[in-house]
Amino acid sequence: xxxxxxxADSWLSSFNQPGLCITVAVLLHYFLLAAFMWMCLESVxxxxxxxxxxxxxxxxxxxxxxxAGWGIPAIVITIVLIINKDFYGNASHSESNPFSNFCWIQxxxxxxxxxxxxxxxxxxxxxxxxxTVLLQIHSVKSRTQKRSRxxxx
Length: 153
Description:
membrane, single chain, 4 helices, elongated, mainly alpha
C-alpha cells in the first residue's frame, strides 16, 4: 500500500484539493510507519526464534503483532491529526515545475519527530536485536566446537 499511495501521490496532488491531499499524505505517512513497525516486529520474531528458542509461547501472538504493527502507527498519525491536521498538505520540490507537487508533511519539526525519530528508534531496536542474535549464534557455535574437540580427545 505504501508503494501504491506513493505512486499516486503526485497525480492526486495535481487536483489541488486540500482534503484529498491531506488524506493522501496521512495514508502515505501511515503506511510508511506501518512498514517500519512490521520490520521491527520481524526483528522481535527473529529474536524469539533464535535466542528464546524454548518456552516462548505467547498467547494470541499474531493478534498482538497485528495490533502493534497496525496500531502503533495509527496512534502516531492520530496524535499528529489531533494537534493540527494542517501539518499535512501539498508541497513542491521546485516552484518552477508544477509537476513536482506531492502531498506530505509540511512542518519540518513534525516530520523529524513523527518520521525520523520513529525510524531511528526502530533502527536502534533492530540493531540491538541483531547484535543479540549474533552473540547467541556465536556462543552456540563456540559451545559446539568445544564439544567436538572434547569428543575428538
